[in-house]
Amino acid sequence: MEMKSYGKELILDLHYCNPEKFNRKSLRIFFKKLCILIEMQRAKLVFWDDVGVPEEEKQDLPHTKGTSAVQFILTSNVTIHTLDMLRCVYINIFSCKEFDSKVAEDFTKQYFGGSLIQSLTIDRK
Predict the structure, then answer these.
(1) CATH number, domain with residue 78
(2) 88 and which of 17, 36, 69, 83 could share a cystine (Cβ 3.0–4.6 Å)?
(3) What residues pair up with 8 in beta bridges, in sequence order?
(4) Looking only at Cα atoms, what is the longest distance across the chain?
(5) Distance CA 89, CA 40 (A)
């Protein structure tokens, strides 16, 4: 018996991005524009970064210094992790509502100005 699809997840890895886009203001704009393009209703947005953290507690390793954020949407979430020193962006878009993966991929590449290293769309069962 074939299992019904619950939704899908788009996984994007971009390198050589513009690190000037790796801040809360720019990421808010990214989430807003992306959700309009893929027709998702935004809900709560949560950030995890070094904003307001004492200097001695801030991340300083290439694979940890950056911003993570979760944009909850009515049908699940969009998650982003930026690595400032490495100029990389990692994005997951998961929704039980259908969306156009190519539109999301193209917009993300354009917005961050990076090179797409990997794009993978998974049907969730």
Answers:
(1) 3.60.90.10
(2) 83
(3) 95, 123
(4) 56
(5) 21
